[in-house]
């Protein structure tokens, strides 16, 4: 039997959602993953499969049909791999986790807007905007959760959706000094959730060091593998490996690091 083939970008949060769900089910080998280099134009065949769009992941099924959007792929995998269902089966609990997941889009947008911001005068406002969403998440969890750490008793659907973003927002800790205010009751419940999510064994596909190093160009305002002025290599480049590169400078508003300073090319 031919396995579904997922075209994905390494360290992509939307692809990590699928990997987490498969790990929860113990079905990592039920899907093939094919890496796409974000720093290069999409191959023509991939554009044909996606009908001209560049967003990933996309899934090619054995019969040639193609599915897109991570939430769609999550649902497809949860339903076609019925062992250990991740989404809630009780209608009310499913509705609750769906309400929580409806908040993810605004949350993701606020976090990425903050890391890509290049106007230091907007920092305070953007920090406040992201904190406000964390506070709403915390309030939702305090009202609806039935577990001490997760939304329900175990790591589930909502955690698959949010955990990759919690991990990506390590870049805001590093480049923006963003953190939830310690001791502030408005954030207590969501802070517990974040820590439990990022520590879960099924969610260990990426590391903080990897996120910080690969997303340096995002912190300088260039996303999706786009080159920065004066640079020849994207921080998302496969080679040299992020493991061999130095940590980037924290100050995203100061002078930009060069390819050599980022360990992307040999010093001249």
Task: Walk me through what this model shows.
The chain has 268 residues and is mainly α. It is built from eleven helices and four strands; from the N terminus they run βαβαββααααααααα. It has three domains: 5-80, Glutaredoxin (3-Layer(aba) Sandwich); 91-199, Glutathione S-transferase Yfyf (Class Pi), Chain A, domain 2 (Up-down Bundle); 216-262, Glutaredoxin (3-Layer(aba) Sandwich). The protein has helices at residues 13-25, 44-50, 70-80, 91-101, 104-116, 123-144, 157-168, 170-176, 188-199, 208-214, 216-219; strands spanning 5-8, 32-35, 58-60, 66-68. The chain has a four-stranded mixed beta sheet, with helices on both faces. Helix 1 (13-25) links the parallel strand 1 and strand 2 (32-35). Helix 1 packs parallel to helix 3, helix 4 packs parallel to helix 7 and helix 6 crosses helix 9 (188-199).
- Give me the number of helical elements: 11
Seen as an oligomer or otherwise, the chain set is single chain
Q: How large, in whole angstroms, is the Cα Rg? A: 19 Å
Let me know the number of strands: 4
Query: What is the C-level CATH assignment of the largest domain?
Result: Mainly Alpha
- Strand order in the largest sheet: 2-1-3-4
SSE arrangement, N to C: EHEHEEHHHHHHHHH
CATH level-two architecture of the largest domain: Up-down Bundle
N-C termini distance: 51 Å
Class by SSE composition? mainly alpha
Q: State which percent range the strand residues make up.
A: 5-15%
Uncertain spans = none
Give the overall pLDDT as a whole number.
Answer: 95
Shape: globular
């Amino acid at each position: 039997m031919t396995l579904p083939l997922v075209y994905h970008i390494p360290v992509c949060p939307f692809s990590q959602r699928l990997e987490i769900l498969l790990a929860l089910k113990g079905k990592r080998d039920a899907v093939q993953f094919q890496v796409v280099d974000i720093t290069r134009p999409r191959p023509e065949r991939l554009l044909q499969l996606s009908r001209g769009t560049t967003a990933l992941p996309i899934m090619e099924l054995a019969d040639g049909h193609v599915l897109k959007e991570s939430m769609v792929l999550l649902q497809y995998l949860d339903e076609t791999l019925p062992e250990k269902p991740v989404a809630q089966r009780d209608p009310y609990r499913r509705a609750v986790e769906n309400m929580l997941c409806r908040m993810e889009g605004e949350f993701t947008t606020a976090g990425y807007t903050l890391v890509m911001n290049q106007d230091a005068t907007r920092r305070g406002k953007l920090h406040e905007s992201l904190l406000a969403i964390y506070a709403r998440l915390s309030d939702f969890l305090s009202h609806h959760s039935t577990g001490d750490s997760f939304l329900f008793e175990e790591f589930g659907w909502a955690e698959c959706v949010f955990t990759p973003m919690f991990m990506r927002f390590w870049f805001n800790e590093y480049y923006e000094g963003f953190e939830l205010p310690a001791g502030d009751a408005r954030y207590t419940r969501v802070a517990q959730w974040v820590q439990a999510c990022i520590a879960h064994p099924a969610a260990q596909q990426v590391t903080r060091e990897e996120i910080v190093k690969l997303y340096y160009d995002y912190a300088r305002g260039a996303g999706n593998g786009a080159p920065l002025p004066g640079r020849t290599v994207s921080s998302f480049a496969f080679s040299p490996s992020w493991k061999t590169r130095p940590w980037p400078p924290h100050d995203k508003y100061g002078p930009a690091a060069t390819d050599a300073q980022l360990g992307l090319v040999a010093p001249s």
